């Protein structure tokens, strides 16, 4: 059951999939249609799941699930992963690799493998104040408050001196 993302309660579970490249506006429109269709049909053991999504910065697919109505099961999570994998294939992008880091460099968003981010930190190309995307947030409230944060307030801090 599709609902507007902003209408999901703050304790809704969140999954964030970051693309290794920026989507075109045309791709965003297509992905929005496909994601809406998927979420309208998303179920757990035959029970509709109340879910919403956002596409942020033409790069992040954020799916939220109101678990107070029905929680995701192993099968429903598998279905969502298959859906994301289908987008990866169709648009030739990487959405599942959690070992990549996305951060602001000025007004632009950069995407680097973790090893490159570590080198940048060592070379002081990024600092504790570099705004990073903490894709490990678990709830909508954490997403709203702690997703775009200075690296010193995220797991990224361990790579910065």
Gist of the model:
This protein is an alpha+beta fold and about 160 residues long.
Descriptive terms for the model:
2 domains, 3-stranded antiparallel β-sheet, globular, single chain, ABC transporter ATPase, alpha+beta, two-stranded antiparallel sheet
Structure description:
The chain has 161 residues and is of the alpha+beta class. Helix 1 (25-41) runs antiparallel to helix 2. The mean pLDDT is 93. The longest helix is centred in the middle third of the chain and has 18 residues, at 74-91. The protein is globular. The chain folds into two domains: 5-91; 100-159, no CATH class. The protein has helices at 25-41, 74-91, 114-122, 140-146; strands spanning 13-18, 43-44, 47-48, 51-56, 60-65, 100-105, 108-113, 131-133, 148-150. It contains four helices and nine strands; from the N terminus they run E-H-E-E-E-E-H-E-E-H-E-H-E.
Low-confidence stretches: none
The overall pLDDT, averaged over residues, is: 93
How can the largest sheet be summarized?
3 strands, antiparallel
Strand order of the largest sheet: 1-5-4
Query: Which overall shape is indicated by the principal axes computed on the Cα atoms?
Result: globular
Q: Would you tell me the structural class of the helices and strands? A: alpha+beta
